[in-house]
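This entry is listed below:
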Amino acid sequence: MRTKALLLISGGLDSAVAAKVVLQQGIELEALNFVSPFCQCRKGCSDLAMLAGELGVKLHVATLLEEYLDVVKNPKHGYGSNMNPCIDCRILMFRKAKARMGEIGASFVVTGEVLGQRPMSQHKEALAIIDKESGLEGLVLRPLSARFLPTTKAEKEGWIDRELLLSIKGRSRKKQIELASTYRISGYSCPSGGCLLTDPGFTKRLRDLLTYCPDPSLNDIELLKVGRHFRLSAFAKLVVGRNREENEKLRRLCKNGDTLLEVPNYSCPVSIARGSLSKEDALVSARIEARYSDAPRDRPVNVTCRTMDGQVETFKVKSAVDEELFALRIG
């Protein structure tokens, strides 16, 4: 009976190459992918399934929402350069991986991590912390950098030949790209990271959200990814679309309690006011909506404010001035 391992697969280059290195040693792999609301460059489920099929491994997808948000709000090991809790994020994923190991009868975990590639979570001390606190100490094989790392149980037990593992480190992916060509892997996604928590603008919007809404919904998180954001008051914010695609997304994200703003008879963005709007908040929102429309700025124009229950109010306002936008803009 072949030894079975659990592969943590992102859909990217490194995990795909790591899978091939291990598969060539006769190990049976099952792939586990985590869905996070903060990842902007992940494969879609269909693309991941195609990559898993290319590798010849079964794919299981797990969603991390509330638990992940708890980690983002209170990371034991702190943040990276912005609001990225990389070490705590990996610990959470590895704990979930440990549970999945038990379900499928896997003997160890395989990852595509490369020593020195990520400054916060991929140095030796961080890797040791992640393995220990997740309960996977000695059970995580990192085949791309294994020759630089302590011997794992898989190697000690003879399931894996250490001499056939690799010695890659640093941020360059030249070697992995060469190996992908050798292994004929073509279905991986872009080789750069896509975590929104490393983006300064997104981080500012997230901090603002958590300040005024400590327990946001997934819809609230998704709204952070779209448009220009303005803090109207402690109770309300405005999000203004930047193009047709964002306008469509905003319409889909609009929910009960929101107010949808548009300027009749002019090309305009879709804007969502979310929260408890005062009369002043509504007027400010209307002025901002007018500012980003094609309506003339030198005279008042009508702006419609439509609630999700069908109530409509029209404000005749002049466009907001740049100083007002600057004072209210988030990120």
In short: The CA atoms of residues 50 and 187 lie 7 Å apart. The first strand starts at residue 4 and ends at 8. DSSP finds twelve helices and twelve strands in the chain.
